[in-house]
Amino acid sequence: MSKLGSNIPVHAENVTFTYSGNPALQNISFTIQEGEFIAILGPNGAGKSTLLKLIAGLIKPDRGVLSVFGMYPWRQKKDVLKLIGYLPQRENIALDLPLTVQQVLTIPLKSIGVRVEEERVEYLLRLVGMFEMRDKTFSELSGGQQQRVLLARTLINEPKLLLLDEPFNGVDIPSQEKIIGLLQELARRGITVIAVVHNVNPLLHEITRVMLLNKRLIAFGRAEEVFTEENILKAYGARIPVVICDEGFAHPLYGDHHG
Fold first, then answer.
1. What are the C-alpha distances in Å from 150 to residues 10, 78, 157, 176?
2. Domain match, 234 and 142 both
3. How many domains is the chain built from?
């Protein structure tokens, strides 16, 4: 068990992971508290998706200590998976499923013998604004609608921690706004949300902190602390303008420098 105890959603100490000898993450250390809404940014190949997989227990750190609610996810995968909802990138999900919206939520759990209450399914589909489409075939839906259904599925087991990998890719603006509002509400209820994103600007007014990665932890804190010229140059290898909006938030103007 982690020395920080079971109330800390994620704690990492000098975590390193390599793919075939190539470093993906090096000596990463951080702590994420209950109810935080965290955005993870960095260039392609920075280790963002790798970090989510480590937290979910899908891969094992080469070195260092990583705990999730006081448990080691690789060793105690079954117990950790009861506490998390994990949404991988869209390109890693079969989107042409010959299933109804309702079945997308229920079949994964039913296949392992877990009973899903109809009331829970209805609640979640209403939560993401998709209840009226519950009998439509999943493949008929727009990208934004599909993503809202998949988000509902990550909530089916009432997780305490959400791991979302590029949840806004291929999502229209109305769906994006609805998802952001929902994630903010979940964080208010004490659910910890960690989202890997390309563009942090739509989230900036809602998130607690920003993590900037490029194989190493460049910075982790409030947006105005993270988005300095020095940190951006370390992460992206290029200067990216930052503007302060009327509400006082620091917005990086990415242009073609995607995270």
1. 23, 21, 13, 13
2. no
3. 2
- Provide the edge-to-edge strand list for the sheet that holds 10-19: 22-32, 10-19, 63-68
CB atoms within 10 A of CB 203: 21
d(CA 67, CA 176): 30
Q: What is the pLDDT of residues 6-39, one digit of tens each?
A: 789 999 999 999 998 899 999 999 999 999 999 9
pTM above 0.85, yes or no: yes
Residues 107, 78 within the same domain:
no
Q: What is the span of the domain harbouring residue 165?
A: 1-83+159-259
Judgement on whether residues 122 and 189 belong to the same structural domain of the protein: no
* Cα–Cα distance measured from residue 256 to residue 130, given in angstroms and rounded to the nearest whole number: 33
The residues, any chain, with a CB within 8 Å of residue 177's CB and separated by 6 or more, are: 202
> pLDDT tens-digit profile of 165-190?
999 887 888 888 888 999 999 999 99
Alpha-carbon torsion angle 79, 80, 86, 91, nearest 10: -80
Instruction: Pick the last residue of a domain from 117, 135, 157.
Output: 157
